[in-house]
Amino acid sequence: MDFNTITITGNVTADAKLRKIGDNKHALNFAIVCNMGTRPNGQPDSLYTDCTIYDNFALAMEKYIKRGRGVVVMGTLKQNQFTDKTGTKQIHHYVSVTNLKLTGKKEDGKDESTEHHA
């Protein structure tokens, strides 16, 4: 049996967007950036990763996933395959989040570190 688990620490790039995907089904989409240092050419080495939280977990986390917020996301790496408008096949990778830890500071400036599970 193969294992598909991923953990990434970073900062939320924009406020999360909640969308309805069916009867009583929801998806909360957001992206994080993980700053990994500097490349040999002096440019920043950053990894941008799309993330999705589903259903009740999505509803509960919507108010916390805001731009600049520090997070640790844990989940499985998923992919969507599709054909774009030009007819080119594309693959989109994202993390299906099962656990999320909020890090850093809340909007009121107080330190916060809390963990949430799907």
From TrEMBL:
PROSITE patterns, per the entry: SSB (PS50935)
- Could you tell me one molecular function GO term of this UniProt entry? DNA binding
- Identify the species of origin: Sulfurospirillum tamanense
The residues the entry assigns to the signal sequence are none
Gene3D superfamilies annotated for this entry? Nucleic acid-binding proteins
The answer, when asked if DNA-binding is one of the entry's keywords, is: yes
Q: Does the keyword DNA-binding apply?
A: yes
Q: Which UniProt keywords apply?
A: DNA-binding
Q: What is this protein called?
A: Single-stranded DNA-binding protein
Quote the NCBIfam families the UniProt record gives.
Answer: ssb
Q: Which domain of life is it from?
A: Bacteria
- Known InterPro entries for this protein? NA-bd_OB-fold, Primosome_PriB/ssb, ssDNA-bd
